[in-house]
Amino acid sequence: MNTSNTAREKVDHTPYIATVVEALRADDTSVLRFEAGVEASLALRSAAVVLDPEQWERIYPDAREVVLAWDEVHGWTLGPRWPAITQDATTHGYRPQARPGTTDATFSHGHEVIPTPAHIANWVGLHLAGVSVVSRELDAPAGPDMVDLLLRAFVPAASRSVEQ
Predict the structure, then answer these.
(1) DSSP 3-state assignment of 36?
(2) What range defines the domain where residue 37 resides?
(3) Domain of life here (predicted)?
(4) What is the percentage of the chain residues whose pLDDT exceeds 70?
């Protein structure tokens, strides 16, 4: 029996990302837009939540965007994108990056690939309040089967019954 990730459909991560966006908005974090997809070259689920740079001006002055990015290997990162930086291939070109020649921080959530939406909203809120929360690396990389299992909790019940 072949159980490789290429032999089956991955669980859609869009409901999880949408639930994180709802939690952010409930916590008064202004979200401009979000995108979720699969990076074709890596077959990697990823997402980008673009936050309102005006809300973050005190922390990231002159940032073009502030991005909360997720992928199934690294989990969540938060940071600015600067006008002079071109898009890269990860997370639909929205991976946060430090400004050239500076030590601007990109923060990694660490710990878990799929923390609860409320936990991410709280983590972002702490950064927005100016509290630098430095997280350690992921406890252990979650394999695609574990990521699928965790994402299933966010798939609407009607969709789950069709999948099974």
Answers:
(1) strand
(2) 8-155
(3) Bacteria
(4) 63
Is 74 inside a domain boundary? Answer: yes
Torsion of CA 67, 129, 18, 143, to 10 degrees: 70
In a domain? residue 2: no
Which two tokens mark 2? Answer: 């072949």
Give the Cα separation of 117 and 23 in Å (integer).
6
* SS3 of residue 46 by DSSP: strand
- On whether the CB atoms of residues 140 and 74 are closer than 8 A, the answer is no
Residue 34 within any structural domain of the chain: yes
Q: CA of 14: how far to CAs of 17, 56, 57, 137, in Å?
A: 5, 25, 28, 24
Q: E strands within 9-125?
A: 31-39, 44-51, 65-71, 75-81, 107-108
Number of domains observed in the structure of the chain: 1
The per-residue pLDDT for 81 is 77
Residue 18 φ then ψ, to 5°: -60, -35
pTM reported for the whole predicted model: 0.72
